[in-house]
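Propose amino acids for all 206 sites.
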């Protein structure tokens, strides 16, 4: 797995010219942070986050938890969090990427994947699970497409479907399913956040 991670770090370093770098792969964003970032409040949208070097702490109302190269981060609702970014122990840049969750593609993957009968779902919001070789491998192939832009329109959707399948089959599968179920707690929170956001930024007449 370390060989794959090193390959992924190389791709992010070559393609991330800025702190936050959008890519030609729909929903894929690269992050390259050259200085530690103190605790700051940000809005996380539904996405998957993979850290390739360094670490970060995330707090969403509870005690902060640590995410690093050994973990996989899943966000299932629009959620305000307090995050702090750290470089690695040698002071090298923090490297990471995120993949926005496409609800239509997720629903398609769900239709082909049966629940595995594991423990009840993690509460909606943000959660981590251990990174596995089975999940690293499709993420690595998705990043590889940045060096083969002509393959993106055909290959990227297939890889994203595989990623959803791997997550749905793992310990955070039920949490991801909540995002696609219209009556779920996650969907209710998402709708409430959308209403609050629209009201906050609605035109006001004085």
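Proposal:
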């Amino acid at each position: 797995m370390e060989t794959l991670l090193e390959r992924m770090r190389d791709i992010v370093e070559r393609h991330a010219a800025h702190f936050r770098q959008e890519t030609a792969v729909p929903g894929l964003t690269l992050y390259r942070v050259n200085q530690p970032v103190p605790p700051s409040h940000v809005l996380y949208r539904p996405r998957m986050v993979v850290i390739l070097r360094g670490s970060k702490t995330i707090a969403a109302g509870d005690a902060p938890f640590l995410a690093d190269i050994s973990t996989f981060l899943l966000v299932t609702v629009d959620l305000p969090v307090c995050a702090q970014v750290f470089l690695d122990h040698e002071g090298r840049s923090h490297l990471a990427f995120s993949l926005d969750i496409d609800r239509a593609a997720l629903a398609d993957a769900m239709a082909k994947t049966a629940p595995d009968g594991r423990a009840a779902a993690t509460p909606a919001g943000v959660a981590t699970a251990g990174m596995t070789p089975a999940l690293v491998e499709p993420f690595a192939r998705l990043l590889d497409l940045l060096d083969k832009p002509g393959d993106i329109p055909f290959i990227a959707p297939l890889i994203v479907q595989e990623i959803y399948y791997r997550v749905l089959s793992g310990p955070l599968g039920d949490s991801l399913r909540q995002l696609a179920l219209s009556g779920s707690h996650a969907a209710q929170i998402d709708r409430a956040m959308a209403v609050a956001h629209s009201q906050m930024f609605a035109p006001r007449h004085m």
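The mean pLDDT is 85. The helical segments are 2-15, 103-111, 133-144, 152-168, 173-180, 185-200.
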